[in-house]
């Protein structure tokens, strides 16, 4: 059976982008057809300026939301990255395999480093090495596939390169993974700034739909989405990104092809209304289930504890093999 790994960073409240680009597919498809591991990758949240109490809170909230969205611990492994030491153990070996230049070329590093500099926060070394830790997350489990949104494909490419390089130098140790993307929703854009993706750690929250937003908040945010003054509703991502984002959302939530859907609208008002209702309907059951699970943190804690035990047992043999292969003396 195919093995997959994917993760989510507790850098903010989960967004509709996270859901449509990643989580929904984990829930509806991946957990049924693969041997799947899903992790709240909390170490990655430390690569940018952070508040310790908030990261702890968001980690539990993200795990609770993954279960609320429908991940079934009887079918897949759900755990917190920092509970399994194998990730950081392997990351160091991969740092000894990666080159400085290839990390500096990463688009997300360049974007986040300039954001951190602009905010006067300094750039953490871990922001540069973040894709190496992500490679360790994937390679430790021998994952064949990594279901991610479009923004993460460059990092999965790096994981592939590192696996191939390590195997070539030290003997076959790692499966070479590949990124997979959803048919729709691979890149959900910010409603107020459709040139940027909807990102959970963005400062301006007006264009971001969070999974826990109530129905009226969703309606307000979608209702205030940026469109344009062009005539008619057409689907054109390059020239008319605002309306295209709304049509993508409508298609991702309710089905259909965004180009065909465009033909059914004469005005942006009607499009916004339908897109908002489609999002409200999609998120309502997740919000309800989250409220139930949030009232039972002991259950969530138990799922995470068992998940970490399973994950550790899966990762340890491969990481031990990598330690020997690279030239480290095993303890007597
Ligand atoms: N806007 C998006 N559209 C589609 N997919 C998205 N993903 C994130 N944003 C969108 C996918 O969600 C998964 C988890 O993302 P992550 O936690 O690794 O964080 P990220 O990719 O860096 O995205 P965020 O949410 O914008 O976080 P910040 O603001 O901290 O950078 C991934 O599969 C991602 O592709």
UniProtKB/TrEMBL annotation:
The residues that hold L-tryptophan are 137
Looking up Pfam families in the UniProt record yields: tRNA-synt_1b
Organism equals Streptomyces sanyensis
Q: What is its main location?
A: cytoplasm
Quaternary organization: Homodimer.
Q: What does this protein do?
A: Catalyzes the attachment of tryptophan to tRNA(Trp).
Q: Which Gene3D superfamilies match?
A: HUPs, Tyrosyl-Transfer RNA Synthetase
The family note in this entry says: Belongs to the class-I aminoacyl-tRNA synthetase family.
Q: Where in the cell is it found?
A: Cytoplasm
Provide the E.C. number(s) assigned to this enzyme.
6.1.1.2
**CDD domains attached to this UniProt entry:** TrpRS_core
Protein name, as recorded: Tryptophan--tRNA ligase
Record-listed ATP binding positions = 9-11, 17-18, 149-151, 188, 197-201
Alphabetical keyword list: Aminoacyl-tRNA synthetase, ATP-binding, Cytoplasm, Ligase, Nucleotide-binding, Protein biosynthesis
Q: Which domain of life is it from?
A: Bacteria
* HAMAP family according to UniProt: Trp_tRNA_synth_B
Residue ranges for motif 'HIGH' region? 10-18
One GO MF term attached to the UniProt entry? ligase activity
- Per its UniProt entry, what is the enzyme's top EC class, as one word? ligase
Q: Tell me what reaction this enzyme catalyses.
A: tRNA(Trp) + L-tryptophan + ATP = L-tryptophyl-tRNA(Trp) + AMP + diphosphate + H(+)
- List the InterPro entries hit by this protein, alphabetically: aa-tRNA-synth_I_CS (IPR001412), aa-tRNA-synth_Ic (IPR002305), Rossmann-like_a/b/a_fold (IPR014729), Trp-tRNA-ligase (IPR002306), Trp-tRNA-ligase_bac-type (IPR024109), Trp-tRNA_synthetase (IPR050203)
Q: Which NCBIfam families match?
A: trpS
Chain span(s) of sequence motif 'KMSKS' region: 197-201
